[in-house]
Design brief:
The complex is a heterodimer of chains A (226) and B (349). Chain A is 28% helix and 26% strand. Chain A is an alpha/beta fold. Chain A has two domains: 109 residues, Nucleotidyltransferase, domain 5 (2-Layer Sandwich), CATH 3.30.420; 69 residues, Nucleotidyltransferase, domain 5 (2-Layer Sandwich), CATH 3.30.420.200. Chain B has two domains: 130 residues, ATPase, nucleotide binding domain (Nucleotidyltransferase, domain 5); 174 residues, ATPase, nucleotide binding domain (Nucleotidyltransferase, domain 5, 2-Layer Sandwich), CATH 3.30.420. A five-stranded mixed beta sheet of chain B has the order 3-2-1-4-5, sandwiched between helices. A five-stranded mixed beta sheet of chain B has the order 8-7-6-9-10, sandwiched between helices. In chain B, strand 1 and strand 2 form a beta hairpin. Classes of the chains: A alpha/beta (226), B alpha/beta (349). Bound molecules: zinc ion. Zinc ion binds next to helix 4 of chain B. Zinc ion (ZN) binds next to helix 4 of chain B.
Chain lengths: 226, 349
């Protein structure tokens, strides 16, 4: 197995190569605004570091979010198109699951993943860690951090939630962004156990229905297409 | 490169609400596959960027698949991938740019990030053959109204004028709304106007006196749109009936009059004997007819691609990409950004 994993749902643009027994190479850049620029060069770097040609890949895994939409889509369309170009299967992993996995070595018991959803909200889910195994206890959701129950906010918390709202998340863990290496490990485990891995984007929010013609455009010439 | 010596190039376009994938071999169009999200925007009366971006993500691989299948092309045979890197809606552009990079990395072929407006001009190469040098181009759509002097579509495009407020297609959409016609307004106004007569003398923006001195090749459609709305409102308030057909015909006449007058004036002024019209508004039947007669009178040859190649599509991107390959241009880097405000003078990113 040669699995390429990538995630763009958090501030890290992260790519890793897994050879079935472990992570062979991993690269990341933290730049929440430039996913489009960084992702493809990182893929090339990781393939070069692992001495693997694209055609040798057997699987593609991608974080399906939730995360800020524009960045999230860069990862999803990259993985889907790469899978199409190479005719290889694509496997989706909810990105919050990956962060929980990253925290599984740090705590035992329940933990909270809370990432930046912008607009003063967080994407979040609660997980249980029992003897190294991670189980999700709540569906991924998006809410204002102050609206989470006190008991939930008091849990050991991964993600950028505690960095953004230090007064509300009281037990921060030093893991802020998704690691593609961890994503690869989760993906390999789920592939082996035959767990379904849909690649649908987890948006959790409806689009804002504001037509571009009525908003102030940064585009010259009153851009609205065609 | 293929046995014919002509590069096989796939082009991706996602700057607005059409997911376009086209494939050309040299200057021959093999396929132009399109998925449009226009129906999803109709109830909002305009393109909603997030709705468009989501639709691009879902449509990308199916549209790529369809293009390859219809053209009988294997991805492994591609010589290059081209993509619209701007201008356009930022989030929408990024979907196409990321997809193009994935193809470039996966297939090991060069990537060309190209300008959307230049692609609108280049598409006529696969329709009517090589572009005469120089060509005058009038690009009119919901997003642009530009007059461009084009000595070389791969390297030298000189903007002569553009709208200073609304784009022509935007005016069609807004007037359609005033007249109770659906979005997008262009085709509906064109259809309704055929049953009407030009009975109202609506204003022609930037066509007289000082305006003409300062904005000879620029356009303005905002005042026209307001004049139509006011005219309709006054009649309605007075309890008079309004002939939608006559208003549509009169409005359309005003837009088309200004567009063609300025385009032909630009040809004369710059000694150019070819005019190309592109963009969604180029599908307008009155624009085609008036451009034809005014060009004939001025001794200018008119080139208008078929309507499907005037609106946004992937073929135009592939057409320009193939020109880049044939001219030996250096490919774009994999760190190519999406540039929502890419100027028309920047033909390749
Ligand atoms: Zn266009």
């Amino acid at each position: 197995m040669l699995l390429l994993a990538l995630d763009t749902s958090t501030s890290a643009i992260t790519v890793a190569l897994h050879d079935g027994s472990g992570v062979r190479a991993e690269r990341a850049v933290t730049d929440a605004r430039r996913h489009t620029e960084h992702l493809a060069p990182l893929i090339e770097e990781v393939l070069a570091a692992g001495a693997v040609a694209p055609a040798e890949l057997t699987d593609i895994a991608v974080g399906t979010g939730p995360g800020p939409f524009t960045g999230l889509r860069v990862g999803l369309v990259t993985a889907r198109t790469l899978g199409f170009a190479l005719d290889r299967p694509i496997h989706g992993v909810p990105s919050l699951d990956v962060l929980a996995h990253q925290g599984s070595g740090l705590v035992t018991g329940d933990l909270l993943v809370a990432t930046d959803a912008r607009r003063k909200e967080v994407y979040w889910a609660v997980y249980a860690v029992r003897s190294g195994r991670v189980e999700r206890l709540s569906a991924p959701a998006v809410d204002r951090p102050g609206d989470l129950e006190d008991g939930v906010r008091a849990l050991p918390t991964l993600g950028r939630g505690p960095l953004l709202y230090p007064d509300l998340f009281l037990a921060p863990l030093p893991v802020h962004d998704v690691s593609a290496g961890a994503l690869a490990e989760v993906a390999v485990g789920r592939i082996r156990s035959g767990t379904p891995m849909p690649v649908d984007a987890l948006y959790l929010r409806r689009p804002d229905a504001v037509p571009s013609v009525s908003t102030k455009s940064t585009v010259p010439d009153g851009w609205r297409g065609a | 490169m293929s046995d014919s010596g002509q590069p096989l190039v796939l082009g991706i376009e996602t700057s607005c609400d059409e997911t376009g994938v086209g494939i050309v071999r040299g200057e021959t169009l093999l396929v132009d596959a399109i998925a449009s999200s226009v129906d999803e925007h109709a109830r909002f009366g305009g393109v909603v960027p997030e709705v468009a971006s989501r639709a691009h993500l879902e449509a990308m691989v199916p549209t790529l698949e369809r293009a390859c299948a219809e053209a009988g092309v294997r991805l492994a045979d591609l010589d290059a991938v081209a993509v619209t890197s701007g201008p356009g809606l930022a989030g929408a552009l990024m979907v196409g740019v990321a997809a193009a990079k994935a193809l470039s990395v996966g297939l090991g072929v060069p990537l060309y990030g190209v300008n959307h407006l230049a692609s609108h001009v280049a598409v006529d190469i696969v329709e009517h053959g090589p572009l005469p040098s120089p060509t005058m181009a009038l690009l009119v759509s919901g997003g642009h109204s530009s007059l461009l002097l084009v000595p070389d579509v791969t390297a030298d495009i000189q903007p002569l004028g553009a709208t200073i407020d609304d784009a022509a297609g935007e005016a069609f959409d807004k007037v359609a709304r005033v007249l109770g016609l659906p979005f997008p307004g262009g085709p509906h106004i064109d259809r309704v106007a055929r049953d009407g007569e030009v009975t109202i003398d609506f204003p022609r923006g930037l066509t007289t006196g000082r305006d003409l001195e300062r904005h000879r090749f620029d356009f303005s459609f905002s005042g026209l749109k307001t004049a139509v709305a006011r005219w309709v409102e006054l009649r309605q308030r007075a309890g008079e009936s309004v002939s939608v057909a006559d208003v549509a015909a009169s409005f359309q006449e005003a837009v088309v009059d200004v567009l063609t007058r300025k385009a032909v004036d630009a040809c004369r002024t710059h000694g150019v004997d070819h005019l190309q019209i592109g963009g969604g508004v180029a599908a307008n039947s009155r624009l085609r007819a008036m451009a034809q007669s005014r060009c004939e009178a001025a001794g200018v040859e008119l080139r208008v691609p078929r309507p499907g190649l005037c609106t946004d599509n992937g073929a135009m991107v592939a057409a320009l990409g193939a020109q880049m390959v044939m001219r030996g241009r250096t490919p774009s880097g994999l760190d190519l950004p999406a540039d929502s405000s890419m100027p028309v003078t920047e033909i390749q990113a």
